[in-house]
Specification:
This protein is mainly β. The protein has 4 helices and 30 strands. The protein folds into 2 domains: 2-267, Methylamine Dehydrogenase, Chain H (7 Propeller); 282-422, no CATH class. The strands form 9 sheets. A 4-stranded antiparallel β-sheet has the order 3-4-5-6, with no helix packed on it. Strands 7-8-9-10 form a 4-stranded antiparallel β-sheet, with no helix packed on it. A 4-stranded antiparallel β-sheet has the order 11-12-13-14, with no helix packed on it.
């Protein structure tokens, strides 16, 4: 595993071929199918390596230049995975590091990796016509998992299938159904952003699915870009992966021979409207202004408001910040002011009360105040002693489970006592 300081790599000339030399090398494994990183906790998971039966090879990278092996799971080969700090509906696993594993011929598995020295299997799932469970992603609310199968097309003659799992109970994942594409192409990597699923499906290119009906086991294709229009055959050629998380909304797509930067139409982009409440009345809706935002937002409710929990989640389903008792103004008017200048650019989801939800887009120019977690950590160290309720300009910098994740909040319009009690 090679470690490269990308700040230095950014200075590499763009008009010529250059060699980038790694700043450090970890030699605990040789080949690997992938390296899965939980940015929130600072752990890397080598999967499909030549160690631990191809299972999880867990490396502490909180000091990036000095990676250290801290654990493993050898109960099954894992082809790909997603590691999260769990904040989904299953309270039994709240705030634990959970890894969702896509295990090739072994199907789907969930493991609890909170204790890196004692990683435990939580549950497994297989399905009819299992060829090779290749990869998948979980929904932002951590309620659903989506997975693909790289060999069911060639083994069983299926068109591209995307499987939908209910993972509300991590001990008992349930297959809800699957979406069948109109093309026979093989599926590969996919990622969730908001209510959209971005799939790289070999010869049929980028496919965008709407996930609003996931609870019924249904998905809907709402857009595509065919990177190889001459064929949609079930062959190992075309696109392997994509990246939909640019603040611009653009989607990068790589193929065996080309690179595409795409701009989906606004009608199929993840929603960032001012009010995006799910199954909620107007009185229960959240108002977030401005949206998109750069440094500060106002949050209010359509109803009478009140003191209630307020949470902000990022696009990977990680809880960024929670206030247990935040005074939210009602009436849809002026709201409580929240500073989001420390949030990295991207799509976030805010929830209040019993689940009213609104999406927020953080978008900035080149003057983003925090370019890295390291800078965030340094700033936290300098400002940790400056918190003050007396002036109602409370600034609380709180490191989370590792030095790689710190966030800032500046409530400006709430009574000091309420703000301090909330934090």
């Amino acid at each position: 595993m090679q470690i490269v300081n990308l700040n230095a790599a950014a200075a590499v000339p763009t008009d010529q071929v250059s060699t980038v030399v790694p700043d450090a090398v970890y030699t605990g494994f040789g080949n690997a199918h992938n390296i899965v990183i939980n940015e929130e906790t600072g752990y890397a998971y080598g999967v499909g390596t030549n160690t631990f039966n191809g299972g999880l090879h867990i490396v502490d990278i909180q000091d990036p230049m000095n990676p250290v092996l801290v654990g493993s799971y050898d109960g099954a080969y894992t082809h790909d995975a997603q590691a999260v700090v769990y904040n989904g509906p299953d309270a039994d696993y709240a705030d634990r590091e959970i890894v969702f594993c896509f295990n090739g011929y072994g199907g789907f598995a969930i493991v609890d990796a909170e204790d890196k020295t004692d990683v435990e299997l939580v549950s497994t799932l297989t399905y009819d016509q299992l060829g090779y469970t290749h990869q998948g992603w979980i929904s932002e609310d951590q309620r659903f998992a989506y997975l693909n199968d790289e060999l069911d097309e060639s083994n069983f003659g299926n068109n591209t299938r995307t499987y939908v799992l209910d993972i509300a109970d991590l001990d008992n994942p349930i297959l809800l159904g699957f979406f069948t594409s109109p093309t026979p192409a093989i599926d590969h990597n996919m990622y969730v952003l908001g209510d959209k699923l971005y799939q790289s499906n070999y010869l049929s290119g980028l496919r965008i699915l709407d996930t609003d009906l996931a609870a019924t086991g249904s998905l809907e294709e709402v857009g595509f870009f065919d990177t190889n229009p001459s064929s949609d055959a079930a062959q190992f050629d075309g696109t392997w992966s994509n990246y939909p998380y640019f603040p611009s909304g653009h989607v990068a797509v790589s193929t065996f021979t080309h690179f595409f930067m795409l701009r989906p139409d606004a009608t199929i982009a993840p929603g960032t409207s001012e009010v995006a409440a799910l199954s909620m009345s107007e009185e229960q809706a959240i108002f977030v202004r401005p949206n998109p935002a750069a440094d500060r937002i106002e949050v209010s409710m359509g109803g009478k408001g009140g003191v209630m929990p307020l949470e902000v989640w990022d696009a990977a389903g990680r809880l960024v910040k929670r206030w247990n008792a935040m005074p939210i103004p009602g009436g849809g008017g002026e709201g409580i002011h929240v500073d989001v200048s420390s949030f990295r650019p991207g799509v976030y989801v805010g929830t209040i009360g019993l689940g009213a939800t609104a999406r927020l887009l953080i978008q900035r120019g080149s003057d983003c105040p925090e370019r890295s977690w390291a800078a965030c950590k340094r700033r936290w160290s300098a400002m940790a002693s400056t918190a003050s309720c007396a002036s109602c300009t409370l600034r609380m910098w709180a490191p989370r489970s590792s030095a790689h994740a710190c966030k800032a909040v500046v409530p400006l319009s709430a009574p000091c006592a309420s703000v301090c009690s909330a934090l």
